[in-house]
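Q: Could you fold this chain for me?
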Amino acid sequence: MDRRSFLKNASFAGTAAAASALAAPAVAQGKMTWRMVTTWPKNFPGLGVGAQRLADRITAASDGQLTVQVFAAGEMVPPLQALDAVIDGSAEMSHGAAYYWQNKSVALSFFTGVPFGMTSRELTAWVRFMGGQEIWDEIYDQFGVQGFLSGDTGTQAGGWFKNELTSLDDIQGMRFRTPGLGGQVWQKMGVSVTNMAAGEIFQALQNNTLDAAEFVGPYNDLALGFYQVCKHYYTSSFNEPGLATEVVVDKAKYQALPSNLQAIVRDAAQAEYDNVASDMYANDPRALATLVNDHGVITHNQFPDDILQAAANAAKEVLTEVRDNGDALVQKTMKSYLGALDILRTRTEGTDQSFVMAREKYFDMS
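A: Sure. Below is the predicted structure, expressed as structure tokens.
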């Protein structure tokens, strides 16, 4: 997708959407309309499309009893105020990433991505079957909302850089867009870190407000046009090993729904989490081929060893500080997360990784 066309589509109809957003949610003949505000540009590959598909799933499965109307980033509220819109009652649902709200509770970062932490499959196992959802519910109860996993990008790309990184010295003082606990890790390594919404990153790179940026991966990054400014692309992230997105609902309104509609919202979110994962997995490698073959992007599978070692050390420091300085609920979240990781990594590293290494070494049908 051409970046100019994408951004044109992303900003279309904002005025009309904002005007319609002022109305209260419609309730007629037992039917309701809920408003979902998102952190994503309109028609954004994978994530924004996934939010719309989730809304459509709920609407169709409920046979119109619960219609979900989607507002892209900026159409109703600024992208990084999406959760606040649900908390203050301006919207019934938001779609984003839990670590965007770590200023409310750092525990929320554990439900998105942790440096050197869980892969997507591990995170899902923890949330669904090892107590993660129950802890997440406790965190969001403080704000009167309920969160569900709603999308999965898999292991994200490490980021876009204007020059190749050869050592730890190359990143000192670098201005880098990256959020969450991963941002704190980069900061400990000497990087100046900021977070900004997807639609703002390209211009910041272009006018040299940023030296480098990471967002998601090839599928999204191609649409955002980062290759026009940066040519060096690190394709494996240590700070976002299995990033999840979330859908958040007003808990009181959710619990007031009939049980069948509650189940539809919950199960549609789970289905869309898995669907987004497949969408990203299918389209990331194809987008990467386009970046390399059509736009001359230079890829690097991994950061230099001294950056990785410094990052691992910094990650341990960040997580220790989170544990030692956090409240009881933060400490409970971290204990559950790390306990689950100790168990789950034995499967990932002892079974899955061994198979992948064997396939890479011995099997080729091309």
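A (continued): The chain has 13 helices and twelve strands.
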